[in-house]
Q: What sequence folds into this?
């Protein structure tokens, strides 16, 4: 039996998370602009890129997805529409909160969110989808809760934003697990298209009172944000999932927030406290404990949802 060379798939997965690890750079370069305005153009440009890719290279996948929905029972069709809409709404909330946190609070808070996200997703999967959790995973969940308490005692605002980002994306992952039989790129395209339709009428409110001109710098950086930090790593992850297990992808995923922390301290000179350090160490230990004994994980990535935000999460 011929053995598959997994090196290209590992390279693709690692490359995606390394790219997402440096997402603070384009966001910080746009710090003078309102978060809502950055969100608007990031969604718009990502939609354009994904529509072009779908029309030019993935038309068959689009037709298959639409045929699958059309052939399904009315209840399944309604579920598809409902959770696609919810997915678009949750992504919009997640993107806006993440952009705001990176530019107006600190990179550490955004990174902490995505260390929490897999654990929160596991809890929601247990509560809503009746997915089983091993004993070591419950221990990890308890340690994660303790890390939240530590963060909350120091800066409640940071904790609340971390939870908003983590929960919005965790709920997004749950909706996508329910839609796991459909093509991921087609779903993402539809969700971002819905997101754009939802936010377009509110552009004035998203822009706020800002008088900063939308110059070449703005469109260059939002273009980089959309193409290089959204669509490119997304496709690298989909390629990696062809051969790597979801457990492997889940472990590789932590390259992202670790790089975020390194960038925050070494380049942007962010400061921290002893309590925060303790909380970060605790959540990192919980991540290791959570991923012990991966033998029971599925050998395919069929249920894995790859986030366009800049991170991914562990899915069973």
A:
């Amino acid at each position: 039996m011929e053995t598959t060379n997994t090196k290209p798939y590992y390279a693709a997965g690692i490359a995606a998370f390394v790219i997402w690890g440096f997402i603070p750079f384009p966001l910080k370069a746009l710090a003078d602009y309102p978060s809502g305005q950055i969100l608007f153009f990031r969604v718009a440009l990502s939609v354009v890129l994904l529509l072009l890719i779908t029309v030019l290279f993935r038309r068959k996948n689009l037709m298959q997805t639409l045929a699958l929905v059309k052939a399904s029972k009315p209840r399944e069709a309604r579920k598809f529409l409902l959770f696609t809409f919810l997915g678009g709404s949750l992504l919009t909330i997640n993107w806006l909160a993440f952009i705001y946190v990176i530019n107006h609070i600190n990179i550490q808070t955004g990174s902490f969110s995505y260390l929490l996200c897999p654990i929160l997703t596991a809890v929601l999967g247990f509560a809503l989808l009746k997915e089983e959790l091993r004993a070591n995973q419950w221990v990890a969940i308890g340690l994660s809760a303790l890390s939240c308490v530590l963060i909350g005692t120091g800066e409640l605002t940071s904790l609340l934003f971390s939870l908003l980002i983590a929960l919005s994306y965790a709920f997004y992952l749950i909706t996508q697990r329910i839609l796991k039989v459909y093509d991921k790129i087609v779903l993402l395209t539809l969700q971002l298209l819905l997101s754009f339709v939802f936010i377009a009428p509110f552009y004035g409110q998203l822009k706020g009172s800002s008088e900063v001109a939308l110059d070449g710098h703005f469109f260059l950086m939002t273009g980089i944000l959309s193409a290089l930090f959204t669509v490119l790593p997304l496709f690298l992850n989909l390629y990696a999932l062809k051969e790597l297990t979801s457990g492997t992808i889940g472990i590789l995923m932590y390259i992202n927030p670790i790089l975020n922390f390194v960038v925050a301290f070494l380049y942007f000179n962010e400061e921290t406290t002893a309590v925060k350090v303790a909380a970060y160490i605790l959540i990192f230990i919980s991540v290791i404990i959570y991923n012990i004994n991966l033998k029971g994980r599925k050998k395919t990535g069929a249920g894995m949802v790859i986030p366009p935000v800049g991170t991914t999460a562990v899915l069973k």
